[in-house]
Amino acid sequence: MKYILRRRPSPALVIACIALFVSLSGVSYGVATGFIDSREIRNNTITSGDVRNNTLRTFDIRNNEVRGFDVRNSSLQGRDIAFNTLTGADVNETTLGKVASAAAADNASAVTVLKTIAPVTIAEGGAPATLVSHGPLTLSAACVDSGGSTAARLRVQTTEAGAAGSDVPTIDPADGAVPVAELLDLAAAPRSAANRDVFAWAPSGKGLTGQFGVIADGSGAGSCVFTGHVAIEG
Description:
Layout: H1 2-6, H2 11-33, E1 112-123, E2 129-134, E3 137-146, E4 149-158, E5 163-165, E6 168-171, E7 178-184, E8 191-201, E9 207-217, E10 223-233
Antiparallel strand pairs: 1-10, 2-3, 3-4, 4-7, 5-6, 5-8, 8-9, 9-10
C-alpha cells in the first residue's frame, strides 16, 4: 500500500488530464447554456439545411458580398429594384425593341408640317405665284380672265407621273399647271369670296392638303386674293 502511494502521477499525465477536462467541459458548457459560437463549429460545415427559412436578414450579410451569380436567372422583378435607379448605362440598347408610338417614324409620310400662306394678291393676267412646293408637287395661284369673268385659280404641277389633285384624277409632268380649284366673280356682284379646299398627291408618298380663302374681284382691272394654310406630308 505504501508503495502505491509513493508513485505519484507524472507531470505529462497531469497535463493530459487537464486538457481532456477542459475540452470536455467546454462542449458541455456550450450545450448546457444553449450558446454555441463559431469556436464550437467546424469551418465550412454549416449548410442551408441548418438555417431556418426566412430568418436571415440584411445585417447577416456583409455589404457588397451578394453578386450576380448568387441570384437565380430571371428571378428579379420590377418590385426588387428601387424606383428611378436604372439609367441608360444599365441597359443594352441593342436589346431594346421599338416604342410603339415611334413606329410611324420609319415612314416618312407620317411627318406633317403645317404652313400658313399670307395673303397673296395677283392682278388679273399677272404672273402666277407659287404658294408651296413639296417634292415633285408645286401648288400655285393664278388670276385669269375666263370668258369675261375674273377667275381665281389654285393649280398643281408635278414632276412625277401619276400624281393626282382635287377634281383631277391624274396629273403628269407634261400637263403643266393644272387647275384643281377655282372661284369666278359673279356678274351681279363682281367681287366674290369663298373657301376652297385642295389636295395633291404623288406616287412617291409626297402630298399636301390645303384650305384657302379666295377672292375673285372682277371690278376695275380685276384681281384675285389667296390666303390659307397647307399641310405638307411625306
